[in-house]
Write a structure and sequence with these properties.
With about 150 residues, this protein is an alpha+beta fold. About 30% of the residues lie in helices and about 20% in strands. The termini are far apart.
């Protein structure tokens, strides 16, 4: 599989374009399809790179700026206690981070209760809360995107 196919497959799997919250020329922040915790996201490089050492200094500077936007938005909308950035890349060989807001207690959003079943240890990434609610991911995306512009 060539690099463009790897990138396209990654973006399709994580529904990056559909669930996009904010982006820079180099990076995209999207809602993670599997909500391990409320507001979980994916930060992904907009070009193919198989390792972090392939990311340029300019791209890293853009990442820093986008992380600032992300943290401010997630804090204002969902009031996380701490945030975890996980770069695993065991399955998807594309530079990306899973962004997992962490919560000591339950949160309410869209009339649903959200828990952090891994607190205070490693996040439970295999959990996908409220996956049966078809409109929940767009609602999370909209709440976060609105916080980015306010």
């Amino acid at each position: 599989m060539d690099e463009s196919q790897v990138l396209a497959g990654f973006r399709a799997k994580f529904r990056v374009d559909e669930l996009l919250v904010s982006s820079t020329p180099a990076w995209s922040w999207s809602v993670r399809p599997g909500q391990a915790t409320l507001g979980a996201g994916v930060l992904s490089l907009n070009r193919h790179a198989a390792s972090l050492s392939d990311v340029s200094g300019a791209e890293m500077a853009e990442l820093a700026a986008l992380v600032g936007t992300l943290e401010k938005a997630v804090r204002s909308v969902f009031a996380y206690d701490i945030i975890n950035y996980l770069m695993l890349m065991m399955v998807d060989h594309q530079v990306h981070f899973h962004v997992i807001p962490r919560y000591q207690g339950a949160r309410q959003f869209a009339g649903l209760e959200w828990l952090d079943s891994g607190w205070p240890t490693v996040p439970a990434l295999s959990v996908s809360q409220h996956a049966d609610q078809e409109d929940i991911l767009p609602r999370i995306r909209q709440a976060l995107a609105s916080a980015c512009v306010s």
